[in-house]
Amino acid sequence: MKKKYNLTSICLYVCLMLSTLGLCGCSKIESQDEDIFSAQYIRTYHEISNKEAQAALIQTKEELDAFISKNIDSSVDVDFLDACAKYTEEYFADNVLVIIPRMENSGAISHKITGAVYQDNTICFTINREVPDILSADMMGWHIIVELKDVEGLPSDTAIDVTYVDVKPEGFWWKKLF
User: Fold this and answer.
1) Cys-Cys with 145: which of 1, 40, 84, 125 at CB 3.0–4.6 Å?
2) What is the spatial distance between Cα 100 and Cα 162, in angstroms, rounded to a whole number?
3) Is 140 within 8 Å of 41 (Cβ atoms)?
4) What is the value of pTM for the model shown?
5) Nearest-5° angle of CA 115, CA 50, CA 11?
């Protein structure tokens, strides 16, 4: 029996591959000397609606404070607040943040950014979701904090696009704990 693929799936796959490879006028978000982005993967303990969760471009300390007051439960998300404590006005003079919220149906699922490109006023991230064969029975919220050097002077209306790719992790997920 032949497997059928719909046109939308094929187009989405081709676009994803082209953007990940940096073709079609895309510019990878890196320089020859060093990567200009790094990421922190913070577990948060309140429910996030993936339908409503939007990645946010944060360019000032005031925008970060507004994001925290709207989206973070300060009574339980202490790790997120601790991670954000280092972002001062001085930090935002040369850098920006992208915060990507995500709710997972298991705490065993982890994430890794595998690609980032900037094109047409949009930062496109590709994030691997490492989904093990055996899942835990807890829901887990994540906030991925991406630190970017503001080398291109990103406009405030820059869009964020996130594509998730499910992959199988190597080994057992609980080995990461030890």
Assistant:
1) 40
2) 8
3) no
4) 0.74
5) 50
